[in-house]
Amino acid sequence: MLLAALCCLLWSFRTSAGHFPRACASSKSLMEKECCPAWTGDSSPCGQLSGRGACQDITLSKAPLGPQYPFTGMDDREAWPSVFYNRTCQCFGNFMGFNCGNCKFGFWGPNCTEKRLLVRRNIFDLSVPEKNKFLAYLTLAKHTISPDYVIPIGTYGQMNNGSTPMFNDINVYDLFVWMHYYVSRDTLLGGSEIWKDIDFAHEAPGFLPWHRLFLLLWEQEIQKLTGDENFTIPYWDWRDAKSCDICTDEYMGGRNPANPNLLSPASFFSSWQIICTRLEEYNSRQALCDGTPEGPLLRNPGNHDKARTPRLPSSADVEFCLSLTQYESDSMDKAANFSFRNTLEGFASPLTGIADASQSSMHNALHIYMNGTMSQVQGSANDPIFLLHHAFVDRLVDTFSQIMCLLVLNVFLTVSYALALSHSNVFFFFFPSPPPWVPVEFLRIHIRVTLDFSSGHDPRIVRSSPMSDSVLTAWILFLSPSAPPLSNNNKKKRKRKRKRKRKKKKKKKKKKKNPRVIEGVEVLYQSALVRQFVGLSISPDKS
Questions:
Q1: pTM score > 0.85 for this model?
Q2: H/E element holding 522?
């Protein structure tokens, strides 16, 4: 049930943004606690006249906060966003956004009905024009004020419960820098009191899904800014890296020869100003980051605490992380053992899965290694390497989710096949089509893996109970309901047929196996091809 729940969660994750819409920054909106702006297409709140959404009361989670936070009603982020708004746009169908004016991720078109697949690519696979366009888009975002969003520079209490709004403009890039600061900042308790043991986006199960949504929203804002609906954030594959190979002027900025803590003057990013890095100053004033520039971007890769982070993550580290079978475990924080999330985040050893407070590995290792702005949690998104780094982390999350779904489906179909053998019609009666939470792609992937395993290749590809040709047959029937029902007699016939085939093969020379098609489903035999497709074992090369 845990695996099934995780599989469903990762595929039906519903989005909700933590931005403050400019249209809802007035005293009227704050005092009425309603944020339901009009959609420009029909000028009705939430595009209600066009069936895009409706202004409704928000639904809050009833889950308790973690024991590390003993307060109630002291932080604006509690029961988000109810401190500021208790009525917002609830969008229908494939619409999303603060006024239901956008399409959900993966859809586009005037009515958000057309499916769209966007692919994030390795930054080293981009052509020179593609790479330069990416850098230019980031620069444009850094120098363009967001038309849709503002940032609060005071708490709701400091705004006199909304009667005196306190908001600033922010550029499109820094909007997300501020969001990352805001979600991980300390709690201001009043006077000189601060509570530091709090973070709404790190050191807990929400770390990975929060950052996934964060990147998707960031991509979406750059798409809107540039008019390039095909824009995606590239990733940096840092496995087995001996140094920061993207820290060059051609890519994310080389080292300044006059000051190793600064970027080269020839870099796109040497003139960038950072924000939201002076946490102790904000705390002493009981204030929030207001987006004021605080100096140049700092980075000195490799000159970090090597006792804490001896090296960058290896391919073996990644493979071990993906071999873990629990998304979360134990205390569900940075002390969790054998937790995929905690190991990938970097609080547990990628060699053993045991939490180790003295080491920073995996995701955390990259932040520590950069030895500058990116090494501070609240301000780390100032460095554009943050985007490339987290895009690769998200790639690993996607790989893990596929593995988990494959494990669930293997059990599901094994049981289905057992029922089919006992009662020939039961299989089709109960399972006429794939479950709604199973993407069709997973069905094809599973057939690839099953055939690979049953052909005598590496069994580590699928970390579950052994599979056989019978499971493969169940898969084909699962995809082809018109096929005849299984029976014990059919099973005997198949065995005799396989025996005759084996005798014929002995008389012939062995030929190289090639991809073929069974029941309209592409099948691959080679182990390497299966691994490349499914992503369970990623080769160390950068291609």
A1: no
A2: strand 521-523
Closest by CA to 413, choosing from 477, 471, 371, 329, is 471
Centroid of chain to Cα 229: 19
Please, which residues have CB within 8 angstroms of residue 399's CB and are 6 or more apart in sequence? 322, 534, 535, 536, 538
Strand 87-91 relative to strand 34-35, pairing: parallel
Return d(Cα 103, Cα 93) in angstroms, integer. Answer: 9
Residue 461 is given by DSSP the state: G
Mean pLDDT over residues 349-357, rounded? Answer: 97
Dig out the tokens for 401 from the structure. Answer: 């989710």
DSSP state of 197: S
Helix (H, G, I), strand (E, B) or coil at 210: helix
Q: Whose CA is closest to 10, among 442, 310, 410?
A: 442
Tokens, residue 204: 């807990």
Tokens of 363: 């995701």
Residue spans of the domains in the chain: they are 12-303+371-413+426-453
Q: How many CA atoms lie within 13 A of 538 on its CB side?
A: 23
What's residue 484's pLDDT?
A: 37
Residue with tokens 């592409």: 522
Which pLDDT value is given to residue 461? 29
Alpha-helical regions (H) of 286-439:
315-323, 340-345, 362-370, 385-422, 426-430
- Residue that is written with structure tokens 């494990």 in the block: 407
Compute the distance between CA of residue 101 and CA of residue 114 in angstroms, rounded to an integer. 15
Return the pLDDT at 212: 95
3-class secondary-structure state, position 313: coil
Residues 66 and 200 sit within 8 Å (Cβ to Cβ): no
* The pair of three-digit structure tokens given for residue 308, joined into one six-digit string: 């804490």
Report CA-CA distances (Å) from 418 to 75, 78, 487.
Answer: 54, 48, 11
**Across 64-73, 162-171, 319-328, 523-532, least confident range:** 523-532
Q: Determine the pLDDT at residue 412.
A: 60
Rounded CA separation 218/180 (Å)? 11
Neighbours of 117 (CB within 10 A): 5
Yes or no: say if 33 and 81 are a contact pair by the CB < 8 Å rule: no
Measured in residues, the chain has a length of 543
